[in-house]
What we know:
Blueprint: H1 11-28, H2 30-60, H3 62-65, E1 66-69, E2 78-81, E3 108-112, E4 134-138, E5 155-159, H4 168-178, E6 194-196, E7 208-210, H5 227-243, E8 259-262, H6 264-299, H7 302-308, H8 313-342, H9 345-348, H10 352-376, H11 380-407, H12 413-420, H13 425-442, H14 461-485, H15 509-519, H16 528-543, E9 548-559, E10 568-579, E11 583-587, H17 594-601, E12 609-614, E13 617-618, H18 623-627, E14 630-633, H19 645-655, H20 660-673, H21 691-703, E15 709-713, H22 721-734, E16 739-743, H23 747-753, E17 756-761, E18 764-768, H24 769-773, E19 775-782, H25 787-797, E20 802-807, E21 810-816, H26 822-835, E22 838-845, H27 848-865
Parallel strand pairs: 2-3, 4-5, 11-16, 11-17, 14-15, 15-16
Antiparallel strand pairs: 1-8, 3-4, 6-7, 9-10, 9-12, 12-13, 17-18, 19-21, 19-22, 20-21
Helix pairs in contact: 1-8, 1-19, 2-6, 2-8, 6-8, 6-10, 6-11, 6-13, 8-10, 10-14, 11-13, 13-14, 15-16, 19-20, 25-26
Membrane topology: Multi-pass membrane protein
Protein name: ABC transporter domain-containing protein
InterPro entries: AAA+_ATPase, ABC2_TM, ABC_transporter-like_ATP-bd, ABC_transporter-like_CS, ABCA, P-loop_NTPase
Amino acid sequence: MEVSTHGRAGFATQANALFRKSLTYQKRNRTQNLCLLITPLVIVGFFATVEHYMRTLTESSESLRSMEVRNPVPWPPALKIPPDAKRMAEKMFPPVSIENPSDMDRLVLATPAPLFQSNYLVDVAFQPDSPSPLYYLQTKCKANSSFPYPTGKEVKCVEGLKLWRNSSSEINKEVYKGNGANKQNKIDNNFGAALDFSNTNKANFNVILWSEPSRAESAFSFNFSRLPRLVNMASNVYLQALQGSGTQILFEFMKEVPTTLRISASLSEIVDLFLRMTTFGLLLFPVTVLVTLIVYEKEKNLRIMMKMHGLRDTAYWSITYIYCLFVSLLFVQFFLIAGKLSGLYFFTKNDYIVQSMFYFVHVNWQISFAFVIAALVPTVKTAQVVCSTFMMLCCVIAFYVVTKFFESSDFSSKTIVLVEMFPGFALYRGVYEFQKYASFARSGAGVGMQWKNLNDPGNGLKTAMAIMMVEWKVMLLLAYYLDQVVSTGSGRTKSPLYFLHCLRRKPKFQQQNMQRYTSQLSSSNDHSDVAQERQKVEQLMQEGSTSHTAICDNIKKIYPGRDGNPAKAAVRGLSLALAKSECFGMLGPNGAGKTSFISMMIGLTDPTSGTAYIEGLDITTSMDDVYTCMGVCPQFDLLWETLTGREHLYFYGRLKNLKGSVLTRAVEEALKDVNLFHGGIADKHSGKYSGGMKRRLSVAISLIGDPKIVYLDEPSTGLDPASRNSLWNVVKHAKKNRTILLTTHSMEEAEALCDRLGVFVDGALRCLKARYGGYFIFTMTTVQGNDTEVEDMVLKLCNNANKTYHLGGTQKFELPKHEVRLADIFQLVEDAKSRFPVQAWALADTTLEDVFIKVTCQAQAVSSDE
Length: 866
């Protein structure tokens, strides 16, 4: 592979690499993306079809279009009075203990503003299940009175309180302050009505009335008018002033004229209700898609794979945000265009620019909210369950609870703002306002939501947008923070107060070395070669030398005990120095701690104590910088199945700052080296590769870009002999310019590739091959009875000979190479043959398999003794 001189990739370079990869990946997933964009078209089309069908049905059928009311029901004339908690004077309608009225000829029925209103039911004050009580006004409430009209609920007597003001301007001022639509005042709805008699005299009856406007409260457009009773009260006051208290105009009930009621409007209102709730749920739906996209890369370890090859968090989150914004805006525009084309009032009556601006703010809020959820959940299934549950709960709570907050005057503006601050409810407030203004426009009471309407009293759209804008920024910061400190598969986590570490003064490199040197004690159990390696590391650390690519300084990993089990020491103080252009092989049985060691080195887990330095960079404090100079071939292939092998190498090459012809040449050479270039294999999706082809691609990814150190975790697993030999040649060539740390179970691979070998057992480095490899294995088989004589002859030849096997007449001895000569061994055999029958003999060098088995058995024996 070509060695290129290139610097560290900047933000723009990495962002460009990730953008190209993401664009290609999403092109291959066009079916999923198309389904997402078609969803609003289908939903809007469905509602347009339903509304058109219902309109056609009602217009074609007279029985469905109207309802005859031949005998209207009489009902008492009523006044609208404020609820108990919001009246101007507490004594105006005090708590009532007297139930029976007197002076029935002066009866006035009054009701406070409903606690919960509904556009599809008659005035709640006249419903048996309404929480609002009914009152009737009397000059003096007396006991044992009765109310002549059936109401189906309790009717309370209250005594009226007359408040006098000197001028109409004072009345105007106080009525304005008390109006519920005036948000500048904390007291709302505190006047039931007001009357101005200043222009009235004996010859002229001229009175001004202040009252809340009458509104259609039912599905059939009934208007419970409150003005007739006020006119009757004013008229009686004038007559009594002229003629005395005995003069009055009786006003016992009101009655609608027989008519035919049209019900087509009510059906449209029902469609509007379901359209509002569906729109709310539809606009929350992309959250699930975005969270799934982010969590998928984290669950499959693709995110950490990119990070280990140098991709910085800022580039990753920026490009991910831009992609999510693009997809979400497309989704919203498809939604708005479909609504315009469908002719639904929700879309056609409200200004397109106002809707687009509101949805733009919502889309950014939605992305930041998706980032927060993605930082907290580890798997795609969990993310989908969390998002689906959130969406359903929001819809249910909004329909049954939040709507009542918006429609009732019993809740202050501050309370409503607090409700809207809950994720999702500010969006619902906006949808609610759009639907409300569209309904007004359809009935001829307005033109829909326009820019000028944002300042209307009671319009909550502007407040909802402000809330979402604030939450958008806050949640972006929160998502980035959680991604750094919460362990859900995005790599090594940081301290919850990591942002304060920049205020701490870091000790100088030499101070760190001296502190480590004076506090570290060598293990008494280390063998000579392991102890020498430890001393070498201590010397390098004391000198502050950077001559070695990697220096592991007494690094440890201890997993805490759980469920009553003791703590597990996975790595027991490993000290190791890896020189440049060296391939170090790590052998060991399963569970020896090799994976734990590699995980610390590549930034997946934190060391419990100790540290390691890569090119002088501390992995505990500068891992982001370490990522830029390392390559990783993980034990399991981490690939995008819809990307080709060539696209993978282009992506990782760009992350390593390869550009132009250098990048193209490096990619082609890498494909040729791992035998993936010819036959169109390089341009096939990696999901169609065999296991061996994926393995070779992973090795090529780890080597591209000239990393200073490469971690190969069982690189030849699943390869046929020819591909394996070809891969070994690639690794042999690559180690000339970089340090390679290789883990393997193949003794043949270790001997073929590694300059040094270490056997890792029970969390500790037990030996280097040189110590166990300096022996001859001498075996001799004779008839029984000559065993002692054979042993004496061997010990005479070599005093340090070690008998390792004896069964029957067969004995096996280890002979240190530096104490014997081959000629002396052959002479011993000739002497033995002249003295007694020798059935067989053999002389062999120590194999790596012999070393591995011997070290493992000895280590396990020591562990069992402990």
